[in-house]
Amino acid sequence: MTGIDRRFFARLVVLVSIILLHPHVVLAEVKNGFEIEFYGGTFSTDLGGKTFVLDEDRTIVTQGDDGDIFGLRLGYNFNRHIGMELNAAYSTAQYDAILFDAGEHVSKDETTGLFITDLDLVLHLLKGPIVPFLAAGGGIMGTVDQSPFTYNYGGGVKVFLTKQLAIRVDYREYRGTLDDDLDEIFGVIPPDTFVGHAFSYSEDFRLRELSVGLTYVF
Description:
Layout: H1 3-21, E1 33-45, E2 51-53, E3 58-65, E4 67-77, E5 82-91, E6 94-101, E7 104-111, E8 114-124, E9 130-142, E10 149-160, E11 165-189, E12 193-217
Antiparallel strand pairs: 1-4, 1-12, 2-3, 3-6, 4-5, 5-8, 6-7, 8-9, 9-10, 10-11, 11-12
């Protein structure tokens, strides 16, 4: 653990201690009703970094870069243990797929961001102002021209500041399969109509989210 990590966790412990000592927080807990959360964090991925050999001359190379994530969760708690939530988020993580023919760059699909929408089940594990939880569900991840199904699982903790406000920390893993294709361009017909053959490929992916948000209970 680095010095920065130690300072972060030390400050987090102090903050939680102050929250727990506040008399108005003792009665705060998850209750029946709606919650809305705005959050941000980091989004890391192992999507990309693969080479698909199509034949002796042609290959598709994929590349992925980590990014940030920003999102909104709207949830409803049926009771203090079980809830559902709808999540909509945008990540600056990038994904590219490049087709090479005899080592020459032929065509490229480029994604400069990812859109995520999913519906999740939330299980709250404890009663009180600090509530650890588990979450799992499914939805879609939008790229430049594909929207593959993803399933996710993870958990986190809600730390109530008041009866209506809570800090929330989440860790999620998203998994799925991206099926796509790239066109090999071998001719151009006016006006700028490309003619070529489509080469398909399929790639399993794993994405990891670590985020912090502010939740309002109403």
